[in-house]
Amino acid sequence: MDNIIRDExxxxxxxxxxxxxxxxxxxxxxxxxxxxxxxxxxxxIHNRRRNRFRLSKASAEFLRRFYPQATADDWNDWRWQxxxxxxxxxxxxxxxxxxxxxxxxxxxxxxxxxxxxxPYYASLIDSENTSQGLRRTVIxxxxxYETSAGENEDPLGEDHHSPVPGLVHRYPxxxxxxVTNFCSVxxxxxxxxxxxxxxxxxxxxxxxxxxxxxxxxxxxxxxxxLISGGDPLSLDDEKLDYVLRNxxxxxxxxxxxxxxxxxxxQPMRITSELTRMLKRYHPLWMxxxxxxxxxxxxxxxxxxxxxxxxxxxxxxxxxxxxxxxxDVNTMTTLMHGLLKARVKPYYLYQxxxxxxxxxxxxxxxxxxxxxxxxxxxxTGYAIxxxxxxxxxxxxxxxxxxxxxxxxxxxxxxxLKSYDGGVYRYxxxxxxxxxxxxSKQEEVISWEHL
Length: 449
Ligand code: SF4
Known about the structure:
TIM Barrel, four-stranded mixed sheet, disordered N terminus, disordered C terminus, binds iron/sulfur cluster, 4 iron, 4 sulfur cluster binding
């Protein structure tokens, strides 16, 4: 067991790869073969009061109703949130009125991508409305068991680009490092549904992590490491410090990113101890997984503020989901809310064709039309890049509305603006590889701009 990261429920120091005789000393955990890290391990002193969020009225009411023995300090403790996650049919039925479809799906479930919802996130779910966006993203339905044409378990072909377990090397200069299979909340459309929450929710071999570090050390072309999972921020501070410290000790790793939904589903995870530790590893960026503006509670906005105050640039990742966020108002409201929370909208993803996800997937044209509806109508910073992650390892391919109309007979470029007007631009030199404009449209000349 001592060579395995095995976080049970909840993740704990006790059985982890990085666990030590002392709860806070990680000095002995540094693999002997590793070059010396330039940053000393952290010493964590938890301060529950300093990390408290003010309980919203809704949270306080939810806490009183469903966890009457717990205190506000418990609620604000991310470990308490983990220990009290909603995981069973019985747990869920205490909190929401399940439909027959939801109930049958939960009963039928086996293996990876179990039900897992923090009490905090459960407090945001509509207990009666089965079509509420947030509810649909975390409570399974029977459609999950229907595999449609083109769907499979590993649509991005990550397993075929994995030189060592837990490391995906798909692009020339960057890698994806999967440090855990655990998430405190499981999204029903997860691209890694095949692995998250499996094997006691998290099981990563120490030897795999070491092999990943070794691989990165040996490949000097790798300048960017994205730490993901599962959710890396579900690791406790000591384990995360260990990963970051070892990566930062590799001279050619210029840039480290963390992908996480933790600030959204468990904002109390963003403690002062965590941000103090993270600040030691700049340049460190974060991609936060948001789905809907309902997630932007005062607690989540405060958590994003704590990360931003620690100097961490924040970008968002959002999966386009049918009936959840696929209309202009919902998407624009989310993007505006992200800007106010100091998060730059980064990627809007077409929902990957994982098995059983057809009920979430929109046509690609929906994403394009959403971008078209936002571009020019709102702040440019609010507009994410819409991408399709191409099946079988093709990588992210941006798809944008086509604003280029072609060239006119005088060689001027015809561009369509956000409001439908067509403008001439006196382009010169090499032409864009597009067809000649087939007909003259009413255009607005460059001189008139
Ligand atoms: S948080 Fe990310 S890794 Fe975890 S279930 Fe959701 S999409 Fe998957």
